[in-house]
Amino acid sequence: MQSIRAVLAEDADALSVSDEAFWDDYWSRSYIELERTSRLQPLRAAWYLNRFFAACSMEGRYPPKFNGSCFLYEYDRRYWGGAYWFQNMRLMYWPLLKSGDWDYVRHFIDMYLKAAPAVSARCARIYGHEGLVFPETMHFWGAARRDDAKEGHLVNPYIKNHFEGSLELVWMMLAFHAQAPSLMDAAAVLGIGRGVGTFFMNHFPLRDGKLFLAQSAALETWWEVEQPADQIAGLRAVVPALAALADREGQHDDSAFFRRLQSQLPELPRGVMRFQDGRMEAIDQGRLFVPAAGFAHPQKENYEDPELYALWPFGLIGKGLADYGEAMGTFKARLHEEPVYGWSQTAIWAARLGLEEEAAELALAHFSHAARLPGGLFASPGYALGRAGSIPDCGYFDAPGAIATALQEMLLQDSTEGYEILPAWPKDESVRFRLHARTGPVAYEVN
Predict the structure, then answer these.
(1) Phi/psi at 147 (5° precision)
(2) For the chain, which terminal residue's Cβ has fewer other Cβ atoms within 10 angstroms, N or C?
(3) Which residue range forms the structural domain that includes residue 311?
(4) Mean confidence (pLDDT) of the chain
């Protein structure tokens, strides 16, 4: 009540001036402008909507949820429950790095930093060893979603061995530190990174000197697999980057730890998938990247392509990198061709391969599948309101985040070595933009 009284006591004209100044500064920080007749206008709209949603909902101490955020239709009706789902939440935050909206990213990461002690204690209790691995569906205090756990043990087969999210969180922290070191200090990155690395070293055995990720999972799609591609890609991206950061910071113990772990990392699984009638029949010999090296549970359970996480978010393969032909072949052979769910990343992957027309068409298809505008925001798998089947139970914000990321990756891709402008931009499209690379703001115009 004191906060409400304080707000009501403020001068309305002063608040209006302050509000206008906020939005003027916010929209000048980054922008993407197209010709009015551009076929890519829906992507621009999704990009601006994603930033608008962020500004309206991310000022608080805790992040908004991807399912509904603060934009609810009638009451707190949210399919998928009250926990945070990392695979969906991350898509709201990745594009904010390039748009320069770093304060909001910090709030998201802070939730995991605050939960880390409880999650570390839970890891010791249920796994019997030290380490840090965040549950895929987590409440803000660190506990798993009630329906997914029993006495702390994860029992939901979709996520009980789903460990990619902890690696991707560290990868996001590394990217955030590279862009805004004053907001994301190296000690926090190294601390969480060491906890996650310790988990993998303690949880999985060595075979021929390399970690053997047995009885694990490749995202939610493949259960009970060996050597899942998403987790190995995460390890192969994150661990060397942590070692390099430790070297720069003069943290010799951390550096030695990450170098030792790096020497134990397996290669990404390769082969050719034989998939039929909803089952993985076998992995034959070949050079393409595959979801995992072995499948004890061959049924496909969700709509994800874990073998392409090496392309994005982890950036091990792609345009201008090694194994480009294999990366392209893997993308063309993916099981899930259309971006029909909010979390779909196909347009992002096409952009990372430099496929300008395919990236544009896939991003537009994603918009077409997900947008329920003007009244329904964006949809994801869930309940629809009974009175209007086209309007979802609440707005979902993973889809506009994924579309915004795809658009940005078409315009600007960066790495520790530098950045590339228009790596996957259709040649017949004019654009004027301002985004943020690791080295600073990048403004560009092409007609």
Answers:
(1) -70, -15
(2) N
(3) 39-422
(4) 93
- For residue 7, being part of any structural domain is answered with no
How many structural domains are present in the chain? 1
> Which positions ≥6 away from 299 have C-beta within 8 Å?
223, 278, 279
Distance of CA 240 to the CA centre of its chain: 20
**Contact (Cβ atoms closer than 8 angstroms) between residue 296 and residue 224:** yes
Question: Cβ contacts of residue 364 below 8 Å, gap of 6+?
Answer: 39, 40, 42, 43
Residue 80 has pLDDT above 70, yes or no: yes
* Residue at 431 is within a domain: no
Which letter does DSSP use for residue 158 in this model?
T
Which uninterrupted H or E stretch holds 443?
A: strand 440-446
pTM score, whole prediction: 0.95
Residues 6+ apart with CB under 8 A from 15: none
For residue 23, tell me if it sits in a domain.
no
Question: Looking at the DSSP assignment, which residues form a beta bridge with residue 226?
Answer: 294
Whole-angstrom distance, CA of residue 323 vs CA of residue 308: 13
Question: What are the distances in angstroms from CA 339 to CA 149, 279, 359, 386, 424?
Answer: 30, 21, 11, 25, 18
Across the range 14-24, mean pLDDT stands at 88
Element (H, E) at 4: helix 2-8
Three-state SS string over 57-94 comes to HCCCCCCCCCECCCCCCCCCCCCCCCCEEHHHHHHHHH
CATH of the domain at 66: 1.50.10.10
Collapsing DSSP to helix, strand or coil, 149 comes out as strand
Measured CA to CA, the distance from residue 58 to residue 66 in angstroms comes to 11
Per-state percent for the chain, helix, strand, coil, to nearest 5: 45, 15, 40
Cα distance between residue 82 and residue 307, in whole Å: 29
pLDDT tens digits, 108-165: 999 999 999 999 999 999 999 999 999 999 999 999 988 899 988 999 999 999 999 9
Judge whether 433 and 423 are in contact, CB under 8 Å. Answer: no
Encode burial over 210-230: b for 16+ CB neighbours within 10 A, e otherwise. Answer: ebebbebbbbbbbbbbbbbbb
In sequence order, what are the residues at sequence separation of 6 or more whose Cβ sits closer than 8 angstroms to the Cβ of residue 260?
none
The packing angle between helices 398-411 and 86-99, to 10°, is 40
Q: Is 151 within a domain? A: yes
Q: Is 422 helix (H, G, I), strand (E, B) or coil?
A: coil
